[in-house]
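Appendix B. Raw example, untouched.
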Amino acid sequence: MIYLIYLLITGGKMKKILGILACAAFVFAAVSCGTTAAAAKDAVPEEVKYVEPTLPSTEMTVLDDLSDGNYWQAVGDSWDKWGAHNLSLSVELSDAAFKGWPTVGTQSLDCVMDAAPASSSKQACWFCDSLAVTDWTGTKYVAMDIYNPEKFEFELSFVIQATDAWTWCQSDAIKVPAGKHTVLFDVSKFGDSNLADVKRAIFQSINENPGGHFYAGNIRLYK
């Protein structure tokens, strides 16, 4: 009888203890969930990784694989009379090569740009006025090999100046992260009359960055 009373008393205490522990666990879980939800709400989303484009299977024309030398120039201060200072510093042929770079040929353009703070034009342009192909009729895309050795991404767009009016036609910008990439610009909205009479081709960096350099090569046109 004494033993049964002992069990009832201790059992009651045990149930009470277990109840207290269960409540504490519930409160802890609720607090933990609240903290996790708050952390998830405040978390900065990871940067979307660059997705290599699928190149068109349509007709392709090589605009410049740099096998005949360098016909590209850095704008520098040569356009200052038309607006804000341009941040491109130089462009030289480079023999820098590694597996898969560039995709065609053995040379690329080493494009150097000055720092582009918010107070600057943020624009660094490299251009060619001696194009091997000036009639781009039917062209929808321009592809380039780009190798970014820096630790920051930069935005790159492609431009043509066309007809005797030197009409400026600019593609949307593409964010180019560090590493080796194929970049595909959509030029389908430039207009048939402009594409039929291209005077100048330009590629340009147009965002804030600390300055540095990148390599460009194997520039081609796709219909």
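End of appendix B.
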